[in-house]
Amino acid sequence: MNILQHAWEFINTWDRYLFLKINSSWTNPFFDAILPWWRDSNTWTPLYLFLILFVVINSKKQAFFWILAAIITLVLTDQISSSLVKPLFGRLRPCSDPSLINQVRLLLPNCSGGYSFTSSHATNHFGFASFVFITLKPLIKKWGNLLFLWAATISFSQVYVGVHYPLDILSGAILGLLIGYTTAYFFNLWQGPMKAEPINTIV
């Protein structure tokens, strides 16, 4: 057995151990009730609509291009994670793994389809958070830091409800941050910093 196999066995053992702790030991009724709803993308539709409205009101001339770049960011994060990385690694979700089948607390109606690595939820939300933080920093300032906390709690929920390992989340977050940074960099290069027009911005 080579060094890489030993390293993976070590990482995988601790990853599964931490997953079982989060999913089955470090639990409480409040999280059981809230986190399945919290990690649902539809829950955050009002936030996305608010951000679109905020950009349209504050930066009319750049709003269309910002919305387009945000959509491109989400398409890239989702497709790179779901269509490229997941099939490449083919890691089973914990709720689909025969060796864990009797140990996982699945808090969703069914085990999500597809593979586990990387978490598309983590990739999408950290990618979006990174893009918004960088492009809207002149407007939202220190409040932008809350976006990363938001993405982290949604990602943590994926482990808690039983559909992802912690390593899926960590790797998805890193991938998302890289994609979000890249699209934000090119957006700022193309459009320049977002500028507030007559409406007051958040301070």
Q: How would you describe what is shown here?
A:
- This protein has 203 residues and is mainly alpha-helical.
- It has a single domain, classed as Up-down Bundle (Vanadium-containing Chloroperoxidase, domain 1).
- The protein is built from eight helices and no strands.
- The chain has helices at residues 3-25, 29-38, 45-58, 60-89, 120-135, 137-140, 145-160, 166-191.
- It is globular, with a radius of gyration of 19 Å.
- It starts with a helix and ends in a 12-residue tail after the last helix.
- Mean pLDDT is 92; it is low at 199-203.
CATH class: Mainly Alpha
Structural class label:
mainly alpha
Count of strand segments = 0
Low-confidence stretches: 199-203
Order of helices and strands: HHHHHHHH
**Largest beta-sheet details:** none
Domain module count: 1
Beta-strand proportion: under 5%
- The CATH topology is given as Vanadium-containing Chloroperoxidase, domain 1
Please name the CATH architecture: Up-down Bundle
* Mean pLDDT over the full residue set: 92
* Molecular shape: globular
Task: Calculate the terminal CA-CA distance, rounded to whole Å.
Answer: 57 Å
Helix coverage percent:
55-70%
Give Rg in angstroms. 19 Å
Q: What is the number of helices?
A: 8
